[in-house]
Known about the structure:
By secondary structure, the protein is mainly α. It has one domain (about 5-110). Helices cover about 65% and strands about 0% of the residues. It contains 6 helices and no strands. The protein has helices at about 5-20, 30-35, 45-50, 60-70, 80-120, 125-130. Helix 1 packs antiparallel against helix 5 and helix 4 runs antiparallel to helix 5. It is elongated and about 55 Å long. It binds zinc ion. Zinc ion binds near residues 66, 71, 80 and 83.
Amino acid sequence: MNKIKIMESSVAKWNRIIEGKSSDGGVLDCPPCRIFYMLLCIGCPIANYTGKKFCKGSPYIPWYWHQNNVHAKIRKKVYCPECLRLATDMRDFMIEIVESMKEKEREKAKSSRKNKSSVEEEPVEAGSTRKKN
Ligand SMILES: [Zn+2]
């Protein structure tokens, strides 16, 4: 399972909302929620990034409350300029997470190559083969 791909589909979801082509179904159509939510919200890249579960600390919360308090419609979508601004914030945040995950992948790839070569070069530990008298 590729978490970066999942987050990229989340960027695509918010782009469709910004374009007015789609609405936000929350947990039901959030790509990472569909995989990580399951009432516990464990392992979601958004939660890992913010350090908080259930999208707390992300722009989803202002979007959610604006939808509830101002529009109070079943379908969460772009109804006014403020909606557009909040949806754009969320889309940009998803991009930020994708970028940070890609950066981490690059660092991991770099350091795993480094670890491998250092293991090969490392001499056998002197104490490990010597018998104790
Ligand atoms: Zn609005």
